[in-house]
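haha ok so turns out i had the wrong file open the whole time. this is the CORRECT one, sorry everyone. sequence first:
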Amino acid sequence: MSSLTSACPTPEVDAAHRVDPYWGGLWASHVGGVAVAWASRSSLRRAEQHGLGRMRALERRWEPEEAFDLVVAKPGCLIQLAAINLWRTATGPQLTAITGRKGRNTSTDLPLLWAAELIQKGTIVNGAFSTSSLPKLYRPDLRARAVDLEHRLTYPEWLGLSAGQPWSVGSQFDRHNLLTTELSIRVAEFCPIGQVFGESLGAWPLLFGPDHPLMKTTKRAADAVWVRPDGFRIAIEATASISSVMKEKVARWVSAIAADESKSLMVVFVDVSAPDKHGGDRVGTITRKILAEEANSSMDMKLAKVPERVAFARWRDWFPAPGMVDPAFLGLRVELPTGPPAARWERADLLDPYAIPFNPADPIAALAPLDNANLLYGVPHWLRTGPGPDLDAVVRARAGVPPATPISPARRAHLAAIRPTGR
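then structure:
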């Protein structure tokens, strides 16, 4: 990994220098179990009131209302909060990589967000070794007042923070979320990708459109969404274990993809089961079996090209050992259930437009997610490559104000030449 060229412009927190959440032993089952102790400001305050300890000086430096006001006035805090909201769970180094925020000017970003009761901080608890050298974890506070921010921010600031979506804390599964965040950052670092989004932008109505026949009642969301430079979207489902609802989950994805006539999206189930998990490749074997059966369950599925848009990958195939990257990761090689029954699984690179073609009816509209993402604070900052759409036009349209009349170059030159009269 250290020999690859990383797009992350902050080398001290690139993939080669961050803690490896998969191979690093953080969640190893054979060491007596690992957990994350999460703390909010309100919970520590209650513990202090009952004589169970004292908050540190920095933790008591601001009262919640004061901290909330400072967050509103400090753009760096909004950038950090946007990343935590988008990715649900992240370590300090992951946040630094995503946001590019480092140095003394950023030292109060996270403490202010915590004091304002907008985020929680977590400490990995493991009885087998000292955790003092491990990074802190951060996630949205379950009782966050972030919705109040909407009334305190400018429209561009609110879009940058929330992408215009309702505020929610999302799923809270520490290992699962941390692995999804790390995997997406690595894709942004090493692969020719257009953009990567976290769970808060993976809601099915955003992926398939509100008019999709399955969107009326669903609250489902992909764990992450990667967008190719041509606008094709790759929904990620990180799978660490096999539950009783796995077959239903796959069936719903297959049905949604079959009904998606735009063929602008596919789903990849990524096996992130623990490397020391008992049962060997049980998660991968069962996941592949269910995917193959559901994607090829009928002629209608095959005619809708569902097998070409359902894929499987393993973390340990892309990253076979600590600090190592298989060359297949650079093109995002996966397996598709497109072969005959005797040899069902075939390999393809997700980033190869010839292997996974995309022919949008409107190529300009297909690129809109990439253009709009330039407004968002929470995506990897090196992927924000342009100014984004004209927000003034959006605000005028929402307010019912006619578009501004463009000024001719001659008129603009005339106005620029007028000297102020002083009156």
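Residues 191-414 form one domain.
again sry for the mixup
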